[in-house]
Amino acid sequence: LPAAFPVFPGAALMAEAGTFPNGAIVTIVAGTSLDVAAARSAVAMTALGAGVAFDISASGYQPLKPVRLVLTYDPAQIPAGQDARRLRLARYDEASGLWQLTPSAVDPKTNTIIASLDHFSVFAPFFTVAGAAPEQVVIYPNPWEIGTGNEFSGQAMTFASLPDGANVKIL
Fold first, then answer.
1. Which pLDDT value is given to residue 15?
2. What is the pLDDT of residues 1-49, one digit of tens each?
3. d(CA 120, CA 55)
4. From 26's CA, which of 130, 136, 147, 169 has a CA 20 to 30 Å away?
5. CB atoms closer than 10 angstroms to residue 162
6. CB within 8 Å of 84: residues ≥ 6 apart
7. β-strand partners of 52
């Protein structure tokens, strides 16, 4: 990513063979015209920065298989009062006008955010906010309809706004 984002000195996108048609060119373009700081979402989260976003595209194609995005962050660039362990990547959904968390996690030992992407769009890093009580937890998509391609499809189910120290047990 460009020097415009000193918080992210590196990025790598990894895709298996056959993820895109022959000739597809994958690009990552820094910046967006969207007001990331005024983001609307189904969960409580705070943008890393007003203009810190990027658009990933592949010659108009969407990945046929999930791709892995690894963003290296500079811990010295994390705003005071924020915890890098709460960074998550979100994708802007044009249809709903909402930012949706993507399956992502932080590795504080390597200062990276690792995300699995099954759709290309505009992405931005956000700090998630822990809920104060279980009733603030947001679970989506609900219902989860794997592989249908509709609004309830997705490669993962997200449990957001969990209180600190909470555990999820699926029976």
1. 93
2. 445 566 778 888 999 999 999 999 998 888 777 777 776 776 778 888 7
3. 8
4. 147
5. 17
6. 73, 75, 78, 106, 108, 111
7. none
Q: What is the pLDDT of residue 140?
A: 65
Give me 156's structure tokens.
Answer: 């993962």
pLDDT tens digit sequence for 39-63? 677 677 888 877 788 889 999 999 9
| Residue from 112, 5, 8, 123 nearest 57 by CA | 123
Q: Residue by residue, what is the 3-state secondary structure of the chain? A: CCCCCCCCCEEEEECCCCCCCCCCCEEEEECCCCCHHHCCECCCEEECCCCCCEEEEECCCCCCCCEEEEEECCHHHCCCCCCHHHEEEEEEECCCCEEEECCEEEECCCCEEEEEECCCCEEEEEEECCCCCHHHCEEECCCCCCCCCCCCCCCCCEEECCCCCCCCCCC
Separation in Å, CA 160 to CA 3, 63, 99, 130: 31, 25, 13, 8
Is the separation of the CB atoms in 77 and 41 below 8 Å? no
pTM here is: 0.76
| Residue of 57, 40, 130, 20 lying closest to 92 (CA atoms) | 40
Residue 95: half-sphere exposure toward Cβ, Cα within 13 Å: 3
